[in-house]
Amino acid sequence: MTKQYGYEDLxxxxxxxxxPVDGCPWDIQQTxxxxxxxxxxxxYEVIDTIERNDINxxxxxxxxxxxxxxxxxxxAKDESHFELDDVIHAxxxxxxxxxxxxxxxxxxxxxxxxxxxxxxxxxxxxEKIKQxxxxxxxxxxxxxxxxxxxxxGLLRAKKIQKRASSVGFDWPSSKGVLAKIREExxxxxxxxxxxxxxxxxxxxxxxxxxxxxxxxHLKVDPELCVRKTNAKFEARFDFIxxxxxxxxxxxxxxxxxxxxxxxxxxxxxx
Length: 270
Hints:
This protein is mostly helical. It has helices at residues 7-17, 25-29, 32-51, 55-78, 84-97, 119-136, 153-165, 174-194, 197-218, 222-247, 256-269. The model has no long low-confidence stretch (mean pLDDT 91).
């Protein structure tokens, strides 16, 4: 019977890969910085698998992502900073502290009756606890300090505006945001007419920022919105490409009106 590998085996494997005597030359050479691109790739592969509902491959992709965490922890252990057990301990302790409605005595064994707080209440409580933790650790207490600058632009814009909104710096409804988007579009049009690249970048950035703001009011995820639109466009364009290939004509022989007609056919098939 094949052995069922577990947590300790994973730690042993990672330590072996990084062993300077008989480990893997590539793994030994890696640093926190060199692994980052691989981590991002694995995150996107997990997301892609979930969105395609490819549950058969989700286990494998989650394993690849877990390996990234173990890799970072092993590098830290090699440098005598911390190890994987420390990461897990800190994570469990933090999550217990941030879920007082589940662990009322602040221990993993403590239990409470069914919580009366809803999902939105939990998120608000989570943010308050995070701010208190930051103050207790003597970190800078500015509201936006802990929003990672490496986050994708739209997600970071959404996070920034949500944080500002938490202290009342926001429009009371989406109508104000829509008005701001129209204003930014007018300014973008002026910038395009000027032909000045820096101005066009600035104004287009303002449009994106305002659109991300709108997603907070609508309670939708901007990245999810864009991914769904990408998938929709891809499916429709694939239909157009199929029609062009079946016709035997080259793309250059088609007018935009003819391609648009195929586009409308694709929409009707949805």
